[in-house]
Amino acid sequence: MSPYTIETDEGRRLLHIIMRGYWDQPTFNAFAHEYEKALMHMHRTGGLELALVDGREFAVQARDISEQFRALIVRHKPWLAKRTATVIPSHLNKLQAERAGSEIAARYFIDMEEACAWLFGGDTPKGTSTPA
User: Fold this and answer.
1) Fold type of domain 4-120
2) Where are the domains of the chain?
3) I want to staple 112 with a disulfide (CB 3.0 to 4.6 A). Which of 25, 82, 97, 130 is the partner?
4) How many CA atoms lie within 13 A of 105 on its CB side?
5) pTM for the complete prediction?
6) Are 72 and 42 in contact (CB under 8 A)?
7) Which residues, in sequence order, are bridge partners of residue 15?
8) Side-chain-facing half-sphere of 88: CA atoms under 13 Å
9) What is the pLDDT of residues 55-81, one digit of tens each?
């Protein structure tokens, strides 16, 4: 299974990211490249309003990877979503995500349904899985 997936939904102006596992530098580099492409695609097709990040299977990362996430976010701040819901598996993940993503308008959740309710006003986007 891939360590991440990035999907765009131009109609909903949505970026959906799933992140899994513990990343090394090549994984981060590949993700950063695809993330940048997705942001620019959304910018060219009307902009990005919403982002849903599913990090339920994402491990707490090494400090250098976490710092690179922060730099990636800061570098692309003008193109980021107006609202981001991030689903994380634990409090420690939440602390790391808040530190890396302090530049974005984000809320952090343990439950996918709560995240979607906040982000979409109760609508779960097509293709988004919720916990069983």
Assistant:
1) Transcription Regulator spoIIAA (3.30.750)
2) 4-120
3) 130
4) 12
5) 0.83
6) no
7) 8, 51
8) 19
9) 999 998 999 999 999 899 889 988 889
